[in-house]
UniProtKB/TrEMBL annotation:
GO cellular component: cytoplasm
Name under which the protein is recorded: adenine phosphoribosyltransferase
Record gene name: Apt1
Catalytic activity line of the entry: AMP + diphosphate = 5-phospho-alpha-D-ribose 1-diphosphate + adenine
One Gene Ontology term of the molecular function aspect: adenine phosphoribosyltransferase activity
Amino acid sequence: MDLHHVPAAREKGWYLALMAPNTKGPHYAWLDPSRLYCHPQGLQDCVADLLEPFHGDPIDLVAGIDAMGFILGAAVAAVLRKGFLAIRKAGHLCVETLSQPYTDYSGREKVMEVRTDAVAPGARILLVDQWVETGGTMRAAIRLLEQQGGVVAGVAAICIEDSEGGRWIRERYKCAHCVPPRLQPRFDHHQ
């Protein structure tokens, strides 16, 4: 898809076609959203679709998950005019942190960190990542925020797959994603 083309009729998720499929193997995400983030209207429409369910909800802070969630989360924070908190992979923060182990989508054991002084007790936080496949990364981020007394006001991602972890998140938190219902099965099965 042309990085400058904008369809005349822009239904929810039209920008998903901008994403490129994985050509490197199982240790990489299924789709790469870099071209979507480069497309001005695609990025704007993606953020608008993610924020639509939260219109009118009180949100104090936006948190994004390392690394692609930083891009989408920062864009969401800018639109909401809220601050942005980076939830990092272990070893990147030079301040006091809380850490949480997790298993990522490829089955690798990792650790996530967040600084200890960024979340006020009771702060309502919109948590953003590019993708929720197994839910391990998102669940670790939720634990880190809740350990500090934060309230997860919602979870937003380009796609929340219908996996055990995705269902766990949807059952407990208000969620938003960009995949139209008719396309969800294709995204769940990586087609």
